[in-house]
Amino acid sequence: MNWMIAIPEIVLACCGMAILILCVFRKHDDGFQLASMLSVASLGITAMLVLSGTMGLGFHGMVVADRFSGFCRVVILIASALAVLLSLDHNQQPANASQKLARFEFPVLILFATIGMMIMVSASNLMTVYMGVELQSLSIYVLAAFARDTERSSEAGLKYFVLGALASGLLLYGISLVYGFAGTTSFGELAKSFANPASLSPGLIVGVVFVVAGLAFKSAAVPFHMWTPDVYEGAPTSVTAFMATAPKVAALALFSRVMVGPFGHLIASWQQLLVLISIASMLLSAFAAIGQSNIKRMLAYSSIGHVGYLLIGIAAGTEVGIRGVLIYLVTYVFMSAGIFACVLAMRRKGRSLERISDLAGLGRTDPALALALIIFLFSLAGIPPFSGFWAKYFIFIAAVEQGLWALAVLGMASSAVAAFYYIRIIKVMYFDPAEAAFDTRPMSLSVVAGASAIFTTFFFIFPAPLVSAAQAAAKVLFL
Amino acid sequence: MNQAGFPLLSMLTFLPLVGVAIIATTGGEERVVASNARWTALWTSLLTAILSLVLWAKFDMSVSGFQFTETAEWLPEWGISYRMGVDGISVLFVLLSTILTPICILASWESIQSRVREFMIAFLVLETMMVGMFCSLDFVLFYMFFEGVLIPMYLIIGIWGGPRRVYAAFKFFLYTLAGSLLMLLALLAMWHAAGTTDIVALMGHSFSRNMQTWLFLALFASFAVKVPMWPFHTWLPDAHVEAPTAGSVILAGVLLKMGAYGFLRFSLPMLPDASQYFAPFIFTLSVVAVIYTSLVALAQTDMKKLIAYSSVAHMGVVTIGIFTFNAQGISGALFQMLSHGVVSGALFLCVGVVYDRIHTREIARYGGLADRMPAYALAFMLFTMASVGLPGTAGFAGEVLVLVGSFKVSLWLAVLGGMGMILGAAYMLYLYRRVMFGKLEKLDLKGILDLSPREIAIFAPLVVLTIWMGVYPSSFTGFFEASVGHMVEHHQAALAAAVKLAGVVR
Question: Which residue of A199, A280, A373, B351 is 20 to 30 Å from A176, comparing CA positions?
């Protein structure tokens, strides 16, 4: 037993429970503010532990701490911390009081989801994978339904739960099939047994397909994307902001590790499948997002498209591809956190707004917010010099290298279409006549939006450290 | 270190951003902010223009390679670095950009009244992108500037444009983006094949025949939209008509040159076989552009639209010149690009002058202006003649050189390409007659004022340039003779090598 491997997760779990107990015993207020601050602190401490932690296998090979998991865990922790910061103000708004969002369980649930995600990215056994996925999903089901007295939130939570349970079932079924045909669930053993082509059997392929389906659901790729727009729209915006960042990192990182790790030798069997999922995600998102008038729904479709781009890197199945995925995930976390900070700032007389048309004339009424949004939108559209362009650059390199030309050309075509709905928002902000100004922004949103905007804009000057780190992280999957 | 002794090209590229920072940080009353923004933008762009004269003075015309080069590490392990440099082909475009920008800022001094600060910021960012694009010697860097141009231009058309500005802005953005994304794929494929994105190294790399074909098509998608070549030109009239005057000037003067520059910088030297293979295709499109869009121009009732179509026709002549692959043709194309940059920019400014006064671009709403605006009529006449290609004006040398070059390729190409000059004379003189001559009948035209001192200051440098380029063209052709000669030699050598290789295989 190597306990040290899981120290960050253990510490975070202890912190989560300590915060829970502490706040239960507070009588005079809801404890939301305190719990949030403590959560951010524990996320920070955990990140330190991850960075200074030991490497290797632990718990009889159930979890692994390597550079890949270290990279992903740090990104997840940052994303979760940003989500807690984003929720601070939104949940305490008087206008949202009826939704009772300002409860101390909120940050604690984010912490537990984060532990689940950390387990996902450091799993080295299919059983650990399932445990991590479930811990993460269950926490997020609750978060989606957190405004339990409102219809939309409850509907979102229920929908997410039912469909998510189905996906978990698919995943588990796939795992059991793989176990049945290969006789092991350990990543290392699986990779070893698949190295021999004679071990391939139709049942095994069916199992792999089920695992892919489960993971595609968790990362919201077409055709398992149906829940995304409804859940994004229905869940409280602070929850959507969380769902759009950290869980995406965890799901895609897990996807990468499972595909190139244990199933790496089966690439001929799953590459086509991923290419298909990726193309479908990119095209569907590009066209479906055009018709949206609710910004959260539009961002949901946009996230489906970005998962499509991320899957290009996995479909390539090479070190370059995984490096691209990791770079993309980092830039995506900042773009998403930033854009949700802007969405949370859309508020008039305390009421939150979600329609794209509410942004009309923002360029005049709030130039700073409009500038931040312009940066995020151009970046999401992949226009240089913003970080979104670099993310696409490093992903498409992988496709070109592997000669996946159909994927590359269709990806480019869909990003041209997708640019339309991003610049449409810029049109609303700058070309349309102004409406009344938004309420003054709280500090926390300005900080998150500002920091993300700075990262997104100036990433191009010093890309080397991140690219090198991603390179090092991707390398360990191919040792 | 380069011959300037300091990183001249980087300074030229990023100096406008200093102006942006200053403008962005000023606050206060709106009128004060607007006036500060105008003056800061003007001084920044003037300073850049003056600094760019160092380039003019210190450029060594006898060298065919890149000068004023700068290198800095960026992503060295992946073959990407920050490389800047100019050769004879790009140096004059840098100057064109730096000189047109202050003129444009002066031209929008009074016509832009709302959100002046944002306008000036967008314009200075645009200058950075343009200069950077012509200076970059790394494909990734080039791509960043090439596509980065979209952001300020989209905003300039969309915010300060005419009634159909939203449509025009979207069309401009999406057309160009769709093209450039294919170029990005070509970039990645070239990087994969050659292991570097250094433009100089890529020029030395020989890509396989089959790959060249695909790369050429991908690059063609991007550059043909930018040039624009028929039938990818439909965004241009919309963008020109709806953009504010300064936007049209930069669009016609510099942005259209980006496509042709791309052909010269990438397609020709890097993909010689494919360029040769596709030359008849390019000639066909160009000839159609020259004749068809000239005829379309003849039928226009909107002044800006007429000049926009004439731009397409003139750029058709440029693409013919580029793909003749001989020194005359390419030199002519370069000269035509420069003269078109000055002349069509000036023509759009001329339209802007009357638009600011009467607020219409309908040709039928004018007539007899020569009576009230003699100075304006003189300037307009000069630019009309230059656009027609009258000897002694800027338009002449370029067209003649291209014709000479195309004669060497085929008689018919020269004849059909030459049609453009005849038709050009027809629509430009027809325009001039309808606007300037005739009886002064319209009431609101009777009180129209001649050029103000500010407008004279705008036109003066352009008039000087137009005559200078017409009377003494060799002070401009001298810049690119060496580079063009080298490029033609390189092209012939590459073709000869390919033929030899084919012989060996056979």
Answer: A280
